[in-house]
Design a protein that fits this description.
- The structure holds 2 protein chains of 2 kinds.
- Chain A is mainly beta.
- Chain A has strands at 4-5, 10-14, 19-25, 32-38, 45-51, 56-59, 62-67, 72-77, 86-94, 99-102, 106-111.
- Chain B is mostly beta strands.
- Chain B is globular, with a radius of gyration of 13 Å.
- The model of chain B has no long low-confidence stretch (mean pLDDT 94).
- Classes of the chains: A mainly beta, B mainly beta.
- Chain A binds chain B through residues 9, 32, 34, 36, 41-46, 49, 89, 91, 93, 98-100, 102-105, and chain B through 4, 9, 33, 35, 40-45, 48, 50, 58, 90-92, 99-107.
Chain lengths: 112, 113
């Protein structure tokens, strides 16, 4: 049973436009939500997080929005750059079980 | 700068062999994790450890064991490798202060023939 779902396996966006990656979750006890970025042949790297008590967190070109009533979060990248082409994993922290649960990932392609 | 290293980037083993994957972190992190990544399945947690000599089963521990004799080192052991254990294996570590911010190693691509 998937607790963190990324329903889009891939997404293509024109360079300079906004990239929006979506994620849904089922467990209302998650305390933190995270986005990780992964290039081929490398381990994932932490990108941005948001506490469950907030609805927005911004870091440069990256903004994460959390809609708790809909159990939905999204990552916005503005403007999109070629180096943003990667797999993005949505994840959630389960403080009861003390572990992180990852989604299956969305491959983002930034088109020139 | 946090560094997590894994002993091999690529490994080819035969069915039935015992396989050791080593992970070392240099940031004095308390928590360490082993995941495997497969296409279409994302990252799945195999085992994790919150302290030396401690280990906890993740979501898919079958066929694996772990060892943590020192704080900086976390080993994953495949007792008898099988072809369905062909995968990318990723090690990660975190501090207790920020347990959700995981630092990953580069991964080991294991092929079992």
């Amino acid at each position: 049973d998937q607790q963190v779902k990324q329903n889009s396996p891939s997404l293509s966006v024109q360079e300079g436009r906004i990239s929006i990656l979506n994620c849904d979750y089922t467990n209302s006890m998650f305390d933190y939500f995270l986005w990780y970025k992964k290039y081929p042949a490398e381990g994932p790297t932490f990108l941005i997080s948001i506490s469950s008590i907030k609805d927005k967190n911004e870091d440069g070109r990256f903004t994460v929005f959390l809609n708790k009533s809909a159990k939905h979060l999204s990552l916005h990248i503005v403007p999109s750059q070629p180096g943003d082409s990667a797999v993005y994993f949505c994840a959630a922290s389960d403080f009861i079980k003390d572990k992180i649960i990852f989604g299956k990932g969305t491959r983002l392609h930034i088109l020139p | 700068d946090v560094k997590v290293t894994q002993s091999s980037r690529y490994l080819v083993k035969r069915t039935g062999e015992k396989v050791f994957l080593e992970c070392v972190q240099d940031m004095d992190h308390e928590n360490m994790f082993w995941y495997r990544q497969d296409p279409g399945l994302g990252l799945r947690l195999i085992y994790f450890s919150y302290d030396v000599k401690m280990k906890e089963k993740g979501d898919i521990p079958e066929g694996y064991s772990v060892s943590r004799e020192k704080k900086e080192r976390f080993s994953l052991i495949l007792e008898s490798a099988s072809t369905n254990q062909t995968s990318m294996y990723l090690c990660a570590s975190t501090s207790r202060d920020r347990p959700y911010e995981q630092y990953f190693g580069p991964g080991t691509r294991l092929t079992v023939t």
